[in-house]
Amino acid sequence: MNVLVTGGAGYIGSHTCVELLQSNHNVVVVDNLCNSKREALSRVEKITGRRLAFVQADIRDRNALDAVFSRHPTDAVLHFAGLKAVGESVAQPSRYFENNVLGTKNLIEAMGDHHVKKLVFSSSALVYGSEYAPPLTEDLLPNPGNPYAENKAEIESMLQDLSGADAEWRIRILRYFNPVGAHPSGLIGEDPQGKPNNIMPNITQAAVGRLSFVEVFGNDYPTHDGTGIRDYIHITDLAKGHLSALQRLSKGANVLICNLGTGRGFSVLELISTFEKAASRRIPYQFGPRRPGDVPVLFASCTRAEKALVWRAEKSLFDMCKDSWHWQNMNPGGY
Ligand code: NAD
Ligand code: UD1
User: Fold this and answer.
1) Which of 67, 208, 226, 309 could be bridged to 332 by S-S, CB 3.0 to 4.6 A?
2) Active site residues
């Protein structure tokens, strides 16, 4: 298949490009590099021994998208491009709406005009909000608690409306839980700009001495060790979930929402102690207050993805830690 990957230079996009190229798909990446580096794509080519096409462009730029679709025959789009920092979305809601929601609107309009009607979209477990008890199933009504999650919920309903209006569209909406890890080669991985928000890059940066310690947000949650529990999923398992979605896009419902997680939760302290074993080093940490908006426990129901995508996450928490460490150790300053 000829696949257009928006946001393909980013963390999840670059790992998915590896899987696409290794499965003999042709890849065109559209990315404005606002949160990524061109080098990630050179590394993708190095891992796979294959070339991809790269267009530096913004998904809000309709002329640029028209030029891409005119020049590159496209069968399907994997849409990763977006801004993803929850705190930033609270501070800059209109920037997030403009980039994420209007950017996606622009993309699907361009796709429709060029008769490209197959789409896999990156959504988030954050659309569930904090009210539901896990395991979270896809039929729960979205209850987003911040502008970033609202963007994802708005895009999901825009895509469902689009499918209702035009039955030619085939759409998969994938709600990711907590992607961590890196490609086992250590050549690509997560490279956040500035102080990381998420837990794993905080741990890896503490491991290489870029941070003096990890602040653990809260030790008074109603969990077995008092720290928050999340459903961590290895990035290559997540990437493979996209390939399964792509392969089965023509089967089943026109539009389908699927969780991508492991169905199992681990606490922050379990994550740190597993990382210590995988990296054979101590991770300094200190307890701090709860982070506003965090929920105690979040993990997925994976039944739908197993049935509809014939996909299941395979890698363990130890694999996730080992590969995150390998990437950071080989690239202490990132790309
Ligand atoms: P990332 O920031 O590493 O990658 C996103 C890419 O999109 C970047 O390369 C960035 O330069 C590009 N981009 C952003 N706005 C753009 C625009 N207007 N035009 C063109 N390119 C643009 O993030 P990621 O972790 O790889 O996330 C990919 C997608 O998955 C995002 O939509 C994110 O919201 C979603 N998601 C991520 C997580 C996570 O924990 N990483 C969880 C759930 C959902
Ligand atoms: C994250 C992302 C969200 C994404 C979602 C997917 C943020 C703020 N949230 O949420 O965009 O869609 O995954 O499910 O980027 N923790 C610490 N110390 C830290 C960082 C985190 O103790 O320095 C704890 C948190 O309290 C939480 C766990 O680690 O219990 C995971 O946090 P994080 O990696 O930020 O993921 P989520 O909050 O689940």
Assistant:
1) 208
2) 148
Please tell me the distance between residue 88's alpha carbon and the centre of ligand 1 in angstroms: 14
Q: Is residue 202 part of a domain?
A: no
- The answer to whether position 195 is within a domain reads no
In short, whether 197's Cβ falls inside 6 Å of ligand 2 is: yes
Residue from 4, 34, 197, 237 whose mutation best tests the ligand 1 pocket (most atoms within 8 A of CB): 34
Domain presence at residue 81: yes
Q: Where are the alpha helices (DSSP H) in the chain?
A: 11-22, 39-48, 62-71, 86-91, 93-96, 103-113, 147-165, 199-207, 235-247, 268-279, 303-304, 317-330
For residue 318, being part of any structural domain is answered with: no
The tens digit of pLDDT for each residue in 261-289 reads 999 999 999 999 999 999 999 999 999 99
Q: What is the pTM of this model?
A: 0.97
**pLDDT tens profile 21-38:** 999 999 999 999 999 999
